[in-house]
Design goal:
Structural class: alpha/beta
Number of strands: 12
CATH architecture of the largest domain: 3-Layer(aba) Sandwich
Number of domains: 2
Shape: globular
CATH class of the largest domain: Alpha Beta
Bound molecules: pyridoxal-5'-phosphate
Radius of gyration: 23 Å
Largest sheet: 7 strands, mixed
Helix content: 25-40%
Number of helices: 19
CATH topology of the largest domain: Aspartate Aminotransferase, domain 2
Strand content: 5-15%
Length: 485
Amino acid sequence: MSKGVDHYVQAGKRATQRHIERMKEMKKCRFDTIAVHGIYSMQEALNFNQGAIIEPIYMSTAQGYRDSDEMEAALSYQIPTWCYSRIANPSMYYLEWVLALLESYGTWLDASCIATSSGMAAIQSAIDPFLCVDCKKPNQKINFVATSQVYGWTFQQFAMRKDVDRSIERRKVINSTDLDERESLIDENTRFLYGELPSNPSLAFFDIEAVAKIAHKHNIPLIVDSTVATPALLRPLAFGADIVVQSVTKSLATSGFGIVWAVIAKNNITTNIDNPTMKENFCGYLKLLPNRDNGPNISPINAILTLNDIRTVRMRMDKLSRSTMKIAKFLEQHKHIEGVDYLGLESHPLHTLASKYMKLVDAEYDEEYGSEQNRYGHLMSFRIKGDHQATRKVFDGLQRIRRATDLGRIKSVATIPAISTHQQQGEEGRKLAGIPSNLIRLCVGAEHPDDIIRDLEQALSTLDGKEITMTFPEYSAGWASSATV
Ligand SMILES: *Cc1c(COP(=O)(O)O)cnc(C)c1O
């Protein structure tokens, strides 16, 4: 006897109710508790996962259904279902709801999240739904307004993939703190405001509350990339942002085994697009429709590896921020350094503004601190007194800090943005983004800060004529076969 589709629809409603209750329960907990347990309860572990205390990795392409009624209910999205791993997977579910809870921490906002396989996929997922052309106005030229100080490939996605390929005008805010400049770029064809906060690598910052107000006045959303801060130091949704894109495998996870990103949105975003489903639950909409059709999903193993790292994000960001402050102070007084860009330094022009927002979550409930504590993350940059060649000399002298175009790692990593992450945007683009050729970006790891200082000290001594010679092995055949040249 067929149970009927409605039998499953009712069961689905009960499951949704249990999910809502679990979320409510977790919202009462402090940040660390949420990061550690997330949505995975003792009941779920004992009922469904043999008591396993760590969330299981569901290495399966698809979900099988009890009968045709359940299949029909699932595929018509009438019941919660994961269906097929291009759409969703239970391991992703654990990760996504932890992130939704952490990004909305300290507020009563309801938020949802969708994980993606890279940052560029997250940014694409977050902005594309706003870039649809109204078919009643086929000649309409739409635009969006973004700060110039953004990650190099974000710049490329905006400039090449949107502006050049699709004729969607990217309007650049030159001075990210100038509210009037930003507002003057908005017109009736503007679809969203975008900004990176703090920006990579120049650490630009803007007043989130004020910018969100401008966006909402014009009935458009504010989208923020807050990768550098992580929710342990900054939660833009609490200050009015509608959507956050966040690298999960940079500072949130740090271990560096792969790439996972996420889009996190509050419910009922502000938008001038007439799409009630999207407006109400942006990430739910992305999951069931555009991302199902575009396919930027993550693997279940990455979801759980990432989740395991997120549990300690608060204590890591505290320690990493403190080490970075020590290193920034060391560099600031060094004779070969022209300047240090770190929001934590009082000499930074945006220090006061950043201090309004960047705080270690729950420091006031911390045994050790007992009061609010500003923390500024582990990304900084510094400029060498000298030209680009002098900068390369110092960079090549590093013996422990890795030369890589990465950040957010448990190991210290440095790069010269002008020849790497920001190479393709050209001289003019780099000027807008505030990236001179003598700039080294340093993301401080969890080594003892004194050892990082020693490495920097000996690398800087190359400018006093000290020779450093390191020998490395030849390329292997495997290396050569992975090259694109
Ligand atoms: C790394 C990074 C990106 C891009 O992420 P991918 O995973 O490399 O695609 C975007 N924004 C910021 C701020 C980043 O640091």
